[in-house]
Amino acid sequence: MIICHCMAISDADIRRAVDWMRAADPETVITPGKVYRALGKRADCGGCLPLFIDTMSRQVNLAVPMHLRALRHAPTQGGLHERRREGNRVSQQGAQE
To answer: Is residue 76, in this structure, part of any structural domain at all?
Structure first.
């Protein structure tokens, strides 16, 4: 089935790209942008993205590696964000001191 008419991408193309990326690097997080790049194409109008993402999500090999899943919920180190206090704006600094 054709997923993207602008770039002539089929569901089989997406499946093959996801399988190839997972075989090449089992640790990678596969995104729609990476699939487009693997196919040598790019999103044109974007109208296909919901169907593109839905097709990707049905792939068995798409899952994020287990040791990377908890990173989203990892606590920050001592309230520092990029080595700055959380209230790094001038308006916030007066309120914290």
So the answer is: no
Whole-model pTM: value is: 0.66
Q: Which residues are CB-contacts of 77 (< 8 A; sequence separation ≥ 6)?
A: none
Residue 10's beta-bridge partner residues?
2
Residue 87 domain-assigned (yes or no): no
Give the separation between CA 4 and CA 85, rounded to whole angstroms: 45
For residue 79, CA distances in Å to 43, 61, 94 come to 38, 36, 17
Number of structural domains in the chain: 1
Per-residue pLDDT of the chain (97 residues; tens, 9 = 90+): 999 988 999 999 999 999 999 899 888 889 999 999 999 998 888 888 999 999 998 888 787 777 777 766 655 555 555 555 555 566 655 555 5
Structural domain of 21: 2-69
